[in-house]
């Protein structure tokens, strides 16, 4: 059960194209087991269609547990079918996911906050659900009726255009049966601008009795403590601050984890190794470049190194470049 009562929940945020299996494995390997992983969103419709790439995105390594898979979509029946496939509730489509064993994530999360037009527009999914409470409620009710055996949570924002819309929406989600709710402290209209409004999350926490996880602008241990204190929330979720920084979840030391350059190099090489294993040599390290840029964003005097790193195609070349550090 990823929803814990005895201590604050610490979660890695779902981030499309970033929180894939290799990155999540690295987070777990370097930070230990005291946090829950939310994997990048996947399309419910693509799962139901049996799209191989999407089904592969749902796979995970046991080390990633506790792990929550996030789905997006606007059709309650399709959302239910997709969730059933993911938790392998006896459907023929399970087989591509199994790879010899039954995969059963520790939770299903519904994306009700994505602002991307492709998702929040025609698909009536993501952030659009904040404007269509009836549909949002129907999705949660369908998922709960499926008796998946794992919690069904929602990740949303403060509202579509106004930051108090969440007050009514959160209560409706709770009544529909949602087991937990993560709130990014911004509206859809804000996108990523401005500062996350943790005070509004505090108001939601007072209104509902399901666990509330606060999200937005948490960059450090101090921020975690401050956010928990301000919001009174049951947990926090960390997104961008975890990119290139997978050791942020390591709560084993009392001090902020100071990481030496030599360790960063080791972690980057391990991440690259897992990335190649997952995506295959054919793509090489092209799709790994975004992570490389994150790992070295704060380093002094590595401008040239970063320029060389983004041209690296092979694992061996990467090793050589990093030796110069
Ligand atoms: C590159 C990127 C991809 C994201 N993809 C998703 C996603 O798949 N599902 C989701 O619910 N939120 C997604 N988000 C939003 C984050 O989960 C999080 O709510 C947001 O970044 C605010 O938290 P932060 O300030 O800790 O980064 C994404 C954010 C970024 C930056």
UniProtKB/TrEMBL annotation:
InterPro entries: Aldolase_TIM, DUS-like_FMN-bd, DUS_fam, tRNA-dHydroUridine_Synthase_C, tRNA_hU_synthase_CS. Pfam families: Dus. The lineage of its organism: Bacteria, Candidatus Magasanikiibacteriota. This is tRNA-dihydrouridine synthase. It catalyses: a 5,6-dihydrouridine in tRNA + NAD(+) = a uridine in tRNA + NADH + H(+); a 5,6-dihydrouridine in tRNA + NADP(+) = a uridine in tRNA + NADPH + H(+). Belongs to the dus family. FMN binds at residues 14-16, 70, 155, 184, 239-240. The keyword RNA-binding applies. GO terms for molecular function: flavin adenine dinucleotide binding; tRNA binding; tRNA dihydrouridine synthase activity.
């Amino acid at each position: 059960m990823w929803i814990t009562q005895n201590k604050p929940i610490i979660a890695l945020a779902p981030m499309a194209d970033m929180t894939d299996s290799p990155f999540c494995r690295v987070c777990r390997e370097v930070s230990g087991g005291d946090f829950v992983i939310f994997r990048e969103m996947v399309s419910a419709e693509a799962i139901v269609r049996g799209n191989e790439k999407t089904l592969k995105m749902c796979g995970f390594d046991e080390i990633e547990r506790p792990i929550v898979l996030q789905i997006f979509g606007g059709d309650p029946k399709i959302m239910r079918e997709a969730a059933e496939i993911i938790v392998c509730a006896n459907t023929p489509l399970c087989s591509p996911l199994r790879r010899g064993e039954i995969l059963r994530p520790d939770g299903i999360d519904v994306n009700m906050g994505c602002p991307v037009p492709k998702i929040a527009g025609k698909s009536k999914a993501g952030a659009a659900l904040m404007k269509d409470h009836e549909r949002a409620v129907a999705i949660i009710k369908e998922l709960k009726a499926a008796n998946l055996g794992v919690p069904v949570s929602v990740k949303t924002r403060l509202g579509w255009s106004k930051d108090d819309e969440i007050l009514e929406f959160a209560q409706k989600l709770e009544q529909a049966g949602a087991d937990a709710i993560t709130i990014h402290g911004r509206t859809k209209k804000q996108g990523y601008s401005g500062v996350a409004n943790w005070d509004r999350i505090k108001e939601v926490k007072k209104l509902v009795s399901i666990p509330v996880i606060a999200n937005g602008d948490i960059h450090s241990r101090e921020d975690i403590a401050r956010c928990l204190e301000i919001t009174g929330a049951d947990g926090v979720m960390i997104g961008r601050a975890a990119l290139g920084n997978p050791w942020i979840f390591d709560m084993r030391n009392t001090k902020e984890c100071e990481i030496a350059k030599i360790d960063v190099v080791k972690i980057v090489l391990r991440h690259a190794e897992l990335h190649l294993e997952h995506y295959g040599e054919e793509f090489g390290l092209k799709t790994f470049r975004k992570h490389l840029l994150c790992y070295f964003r704060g380093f002094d005097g590595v401008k040239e190194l970063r320029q060389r790193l983004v041209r690296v195609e092979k694992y061996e070349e990467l090793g050589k470049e990093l030796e110069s550090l």
